[in-house]
Design goal:
single chain; Thiol Ester Dehydrase, Chain A; 5-stranded antiparallel beta sheet; 3-stranded antiparallel beta sheet; 8 strands; globular
Length: about 140
């Protein structure tokens, strides 16, 4: 298993008229943490694009547990429980500063070749990076 966490602060524009984070922003929070995770692994989104690969989301799930509000500090986690093949599943949670679970879910992305517009297997270099992290974990 690979585990990563990122910290974010809720901004005013991410809230609705009731002062609560709009539900669509939890998906954005998931994405921010995923991108930070890939950068930390040394294989940011730009590197995928340079290799002619994009990562479209093919499935996403978010369970909303507890509201968050403007100014709160959030901890967004990313957990990978299995090495990717043609799809890459990341389990994610969002906690407030008191440690309360506010949202949980997962995101599944595919590795798509931009020249063929077809799904392909995980790039070997990225797979090896993840494989090494699994050995540590």
């Amino acid at each position: 298993m690979i585990y990563f966490e990122d910290n974010l602060r809720v901004r005013y524009y991410e809230t609705d008229k009731m002062g609560i984070v709009h539900h669509s922003n939890y998906i954005r929070f998931f994405e921010c943490a995923r991108l930070s995770f890939m950068e930390k692994m040394g294989f940011g989104i730009e590197k995928f694009e340079e290799a002619g690969i994009v990562l479209p989301i093919v499935e996403i799930k978010c369970n909303y547990k507890y509201p968050t509000t403007v100014g709160e500090k959030l901890r967004v986690t990313v957990e990978i429980q299995e090495l990717p093949k043609a799809r890459f599943k990341l389990h994610q949670n969002i906690y407030n500063e008191k440690g309360v679970l506010c949202a949980s879910g997962y995101v599944v992305s595919a590795f798509m070749n931009t020249k063929t517009n077809r799904v392909q297997s995980c790039p070997e270099e990225f797979y090896k990076i993840l494989e090494e992290e699994f050995k540590k974990g």
